[in-house]
Specification:
Layout (H helix, E strand, L loop, with lengths): L4 H21 L3 H29 L8 H42 L12 H23 L6 E9 L9 E6 L10 H13 L4 E4 L15 H5 L7 E3 L10 H4 L2 H17 L3 E2 L3 E7 L2 E7 L15 H4 L9 E4 L3 H8 L8 E4 L9 E3 L2 E3 L11 E5 L2 E5 L17 E9 L1
Parallel strand pairs: 1-14, 2-3, 3-4, 4-5, 7-8, 8-9, 9-13
Antiparallel strand pairs: 2-14, 6-7, 10-11, 12-13
Length: about 400
């Protein structure tokens, strides 16, 4: 608890400043009461979030109830909007102090003061501008996290075997089944995958948050997915055994890891662990490569072995690589002697918040990951980063919604 003491003090100070300023901003009692009510809800969300972690998150996230996810979502939503408001309020207060100091200096009258009416404008403008992100957060934690969307993307290759021109691949990533609180909403998202009638279904890891049993309510739904050329998958960083503290004991961690891999098989996915498969059509084929997780961060397992994955492969073969973490592409794949035509990744979730428009993308995650969402091309090699099917920690999605990618291979 002591390690959280300083952050708690900072958060409480922030809230006290913001809501104290809000209450003083308004003269009408009704608005002051509304500001006090918001302050109460904001502080209460901290308490309910702490309770949610004690009851449902301390030993791994396993199907939390709706109230627990909403508590976390509300706490983060309030905190982000309070930071925005605090910026406006600080600027307004500094301007007011500066003007008052200049006015006092000119008049030499300690009792002299400026009218507050003009200074209230900036604070009220900040309050109005904050309503948009706040309403977006409320939508994100109630509806946005299940607002599955199908993103159709054509990828052109000069050396694609002609028979695969128009071949359609469904790509999903980061299911994080333990975070879900609405089974039916998830099943509708899974059905949307099938409705696209893809030729091939690929999953790039993070089936669960921690525990194998998180995916069990959805096993049959994922098993029902079908594609003419099969379903294939790899593991993500959350699928691997963690520390003893995370699972309780090492024996359980090993058994849990085995169960996660078994669940891939139960769902009908061919799990590739530094392996490759031939996808054959009309006597032509391409190589599907599945590498184990490799992440730049020291917190993530570095088990991906490209050379092992490429055994029995020819450099002339067209290939598609499944690798959970996009930093693997940047650090290892791009400069490998073998050319990887298309790499599919996930992991970033697009941070589950940002601006995600066809002509403009922005999210705070871009300052951590260079490649965080969508299609990238460097050194005549392609990377597609899926925004994720589920969510983690922040139980919502604001602007960056859960994605089902349909990649159409084109020869050109």
């Amino acid at each position: 608890m002591q390690r959280f003491l300083i952050p708690i003090i900072i958060i409480i100070t922030l809230k006290g400043y913001v809501y104290g300023s809000l209450i003083r901003l308004f003269e009408r009692p009704l608005y002051r009461r509304l500001a006090a009510l918001l302050a109460l809800i904001s502080v209460t969300s901290i308490g309910t979030t702490y309770l949610a972690f004690q009851l449902h998150f301390s030993n791994g996230i396993i199907a939390p109830p709706l109230w627990a996810n909403l508590s976390i979502g509300l706490m983060i939503s309030f905190l982000v909007c309070e930071l925005i408001l605090a910026g406006f309020f600080v600027i307004d207060d500094l301007v007011g102090i500066g003007k008052k100091s200049v006015h006092w200096y000119k008049t030499r009258d300690a009792k002299a003061s400026l009218s507050l009416s003009r200074r209230k404008f900036l604070k009220k403008a900040g309050l109005v501008l904050t309503l948009l992100p706040f309403s977006s957060f409320i939508y994100g934690i109630t509806k946005g996290k299940y607002n599955f969307w199908v993103n159709n993307k054509a990828v052109v290759f000069e050396d694609l075997p002609a028979v695969f021109d128009g071949f359609r691949i469904a790509h999903i990533s980061d299911i994080h089944a333990g975070s879900f609180d609405n089974v039916e909403a998830v099943k509708k998202g899974i059905q949307m995958i099938q409705d696209q009638k893809p030729d091939l279904i690929l999953f790039t890891g993070d089936l669960v948050n921690s525990h194998a049993k998180e995916i069990e309510p959805y096993l049959e739904s994922f098993k029902a997915l079908s594609a003419p050329y099969g379903k294939f998958s790899v593991l993500g960083n959350h699928d691997y055994p963690g520390s003893r503290r995370r699972y309780g004991d090492e024996n359980f961690a090993k058994a849990n890891f085995s169960k996660i891999k078994e669940h891939h098989k139960t769902m009908g996915f061919d799990l590739m662990l530094n392996e490759n498969r031939k996808i054959t059509k009309s006597n032509e084929y391409f190589r599907l490569l599945g590498v184990e997780n490799w992440g730049r961060s020291s917190h993530f397992p570095k088990l991906g072995d490209l050379d092992k994955t490429l055994r029995d492969c020819s450099e002339k073969e067209f290939n598609i690589l499944l690798s959970h973490d996009p930093t693997h592409w940047e650090d290892k794949v791009l400069d490998h002697p073998t050319k990887f035509h298309l790499t599919l990744s996930g992991h970033t979730h697009g941070m589950q918040m940002g601006i995600d428009l066809p002509q403009f993308k922005w999210s705070p995650v871009k300052y951590v990951y260079k490649h965080w969402a969508g299609l990238y091309n460097e050194k005549n090699q392609n990377l597609y980063v899926n925004r994720g099917f589920g969510f983690l920690a922040f139980a919502g999605r604001v602007g960056v919604f859960p994605e089902i990618t349909i990649l159409e291979l084109k020869k050109g």
